[in-house]
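Worked example 3 (structure in, sequence out).
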C-alpha cells in the first residue's frame, strides 16, 4: 500500500489530497509547514501512530490546537492614561521669582517640568530663557548646580517641538547638538534631557569615548536622533566615518567651555563646528564657569550678537555650604580623613585630590582600612566610572575619591560632605568642588586640609569667594593613629 492510499484510509480523500505534496517532498527537514488549508476538525489520535513516512503530519496536527483566546491577553488592560492639562500645574506668582508659566512653553514640556518639581526658575534659567526662547544666541556664566543644564535643554526642546523636522532626513542627522568635556557630564545631561522630553517624540542619544563604538552606532541606526549629547573626540570619530552629519543642527550648545579649553579640546571643537550650518543659520549657546579672555574670543567666533547672562559664583559657593579649613601637616592628612569619616559615620562623601596617583593611594588606603571607597580619575575605564557613579548615587559606596576633571561630571543630590585632601591650584576648582554638596536646596559641608605644601592657595580662594575662611586646628582625637575598621561578616538572617 502506498503512502497516499494509507492517508486516504485514515483521513478520507478530501483531507488527504491537500497534504499529498508535503508527504511526497524530500524528508530533509522534519515536520515541514505547508500553506495548504488545515482541516477544521481536530486530527484523530490514531494519526500519531501511522507509518514513519506519515510522521510529518503530526506537527501539523499539534498546530491545529485552538489558540489561546484573545480575552485572556486583554484580561489585564493598561490603566487608562489620565489626560494632563496645564491647569493641573498651579504655581502662584511670587515677588522676585520667575515661573516657568511666565514663558510660553509647550504643555508636554510643562508636564515634565512639573514631574521634576521645578515650580520656579533659577536665576540662570530666568536670565537665559528670556533670550533663547526668542531664538537669540546666549553666553552664560554659571557654576554647576545652578540649573544651567535645564536652561539650555528647555530652550532646545522648545525649538524642536515648535519646528517640524525636515521631510528628508537621515538617521545620523541630529537637530540639536550639545558638546561637553567629560563623559560623566554627557551622561548626566542626557539623563536630564530624557526626563524633560519624556512626553514628547524627541529622541536623545549620547556619544562618549571609552564605550562600545558598535553599540552606539546601532543605537544611531535604529531611530532618528533629535538631541545628541557628546564628547568632542567621540563625536569627531562618528563624523569623520560618515555616520553622523551635522548639517541640520538648529541649536548648538557648548557646555563648560573653560574646561574644554583647559583639556585641549578646542581644536576638535573647531573641526566639529565647521560641519554645522553657519552661525547665522543656527542658534548657539555657550556656558562657562569663568569668562576669561580666551573664552570670550571663542564666543565671539561662534555666536552672533549673543546675550550675556552672568550668575555670581560666590552665592553658589557659600550660601548653602558650611566651609571649614583645618591646618594639618601632610603626614597627618590621611589620619584626619579616616577618623572624620569613621567617627561621624558619614555615608556619602567626596574627597578631592589634585593628582591621579594621590587619588589612587587615598582610595587604596581607605579600602584597606575597612571603608567602602572608590576612585574616579582619568585612569579609570569609562564603563567602570559610570558603574562607580551609580554605586555612589545608590549609597553602595561611602567615599568617592576624585580628581577635578572627573569631579566636574558628578551631579548627585544628597552628598553630605566634600573634603579637599589637597587645596586646588585654581580657585575656580575650589568653587566647583564644594558645589558638589549643598545642591537642590539642601545644606552641605566642605572641609579643606591646608598643609605645608598647599596652604599658600588659601588667599587666592578667599579672594575668589570675597570673604575670609577661618583656619582651625583639628581636635587631637582626630589625629590619632588609624584603627582599621573590622567588617562584620554578613548574617543572612539580618534584615535591612
Amino acid at each position: 500500500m502506498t503512502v497516499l492510499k494509507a492517508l486516504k484510509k485514515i483521513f478520507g480523500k478530501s483531507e488527504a489530497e491537500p497534504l499529498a505534496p508535503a508527504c511526497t517532498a524530500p524528508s530533509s527537514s522534519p515536520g515541514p509547514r505547508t500553506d495548504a488549508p488545515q482541516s477544521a476538525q481536530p486530527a484523530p489520535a490514531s494519526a500519531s501512530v501511522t507509518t514513519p513516512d506519515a510522521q510529518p503530519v503530526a506537527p501539523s496536527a499539534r498546530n491545529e490546537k485552538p489558540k489561546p483566546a484573545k480575552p485572556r491577553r486583554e484580561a489585564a488592560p493598561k490603566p487608562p492614561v489620565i489626560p494632563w492639562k496645564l491647569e493641573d500645574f498651579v504655581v502662584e506668582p511670587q515677588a522676585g521669582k520667575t515661573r516657568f508659566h511666565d514663558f510660553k512653553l509647550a504643555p508636554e514640556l510643562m508636564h515634565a517640568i512639573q514631574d521634576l518639581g521645578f515650580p520656579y526658575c533659577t536665576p540662570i534659567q530666568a536670565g537665559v530663557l528670556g533670550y533663547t526662547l526668542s531664538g537669540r544666541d546666549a553666553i552664560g556664566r554659571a557654576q554647576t548646580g545652578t540649573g544651567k543644564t535645564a536652561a539650555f535643554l528647555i530652550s532646545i526642546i522648545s525649538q524642536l517641538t515648535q519646528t517640524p523636522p525636515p521631510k528628508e532626513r537621515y538617521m545620523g542627522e541630529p537637530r540639536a547638538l550639545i558638546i561637553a568635556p567629560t563623559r560623566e557630564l554627557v551622561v548626566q545631561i542626557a539623563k536630564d534631557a530624557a526626563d524633560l522630553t519624556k512626553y514628547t517624540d524627541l529622541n536623545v542619544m549620547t556619544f562618549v569615548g571609552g564605550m562600545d563604538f558598535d553599540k552606539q552606532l546601532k543605537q544611531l541606526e535604529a531611530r532618528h536622533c533629535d538631541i545628541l549629547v557628546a564628547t568632542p573626540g567621540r563625536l569627531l570619530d562618528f563624523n569623520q566615518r560618515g555616520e553622523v552629519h551635522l548639517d541640520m543642527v538648529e541649536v548648538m550648545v557648548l557646555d563648560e567651555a573653560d574646561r574644554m579649553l583647559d583639556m585641549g579640546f578646542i581644536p576638535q571643537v573647531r573641526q566639529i563646528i565647521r560641519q554645522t550650518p553657519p552661525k547665522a543659520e543656527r542658534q548657539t549657546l555657550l556656558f562657562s564657569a569663568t569668562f576669561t579672555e580666551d573664552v570670550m574670543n571663542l564666543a565671539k567666533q561662534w555666536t552672533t550678537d549673543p546675550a550675556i547672562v552672568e550668575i555670581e559664583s560666590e552665592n553658589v559657593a557659600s550660601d548653602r555650604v558650611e566651609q571649614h579649613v583645618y591646618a594639618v601637616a601632610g603626614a597627618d592628612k590621611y589620619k584626619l580623613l579616616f577618623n572624620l569619616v569613621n567617627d561621624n559615620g558619614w555615608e556619602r562623601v567626596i574627597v578631592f585630590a589634585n593628582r591621579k596617583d594621590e587619588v589612587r593611594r587615598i582610595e587604596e588606603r581607605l579600602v584597606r582600612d575597612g571603608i567602602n571607597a572608590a576612585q574616579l580619575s582619568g585612569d579609570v575605564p569609562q564603563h567602570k566610572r559610570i558603574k562607580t557613579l551609580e554605586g555612589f548615587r545608590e549609597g553602595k559606596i561611602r567615599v568617592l575619591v576624585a580628581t577635578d576633571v572627573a569631579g566636574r561630571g558628578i551631579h548627585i543630590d544628597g552628598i553630605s560632605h566634600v573634603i579637599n585632601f589637597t587645596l586646588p591650584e585654581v580657585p575656580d576648582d575650589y568653587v566647583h568642588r564644594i558645589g558638589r554638596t549643598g545642591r537642590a536646596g539642601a545644606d552641605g559641608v566642605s572641609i579643606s586640609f591646608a598643609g605645608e605644601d598647599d596652604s599658600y592657595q588659601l588667599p587666592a580662594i578667599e579672594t575668589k569667594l570675597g570673604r575670609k575662611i577661618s583656619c582651625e586646628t583639628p581636635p587631637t582625637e582626630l589625629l590619632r593613629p588609624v584603627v582599621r575598621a573590622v567588617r562584620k561578616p554578613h548574617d543572612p538572617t539580618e534584615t535591612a
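Notes: Residues 258 and 288 are 6 Å apart (CA to CA). The first helix runs from residue 3 to 11.
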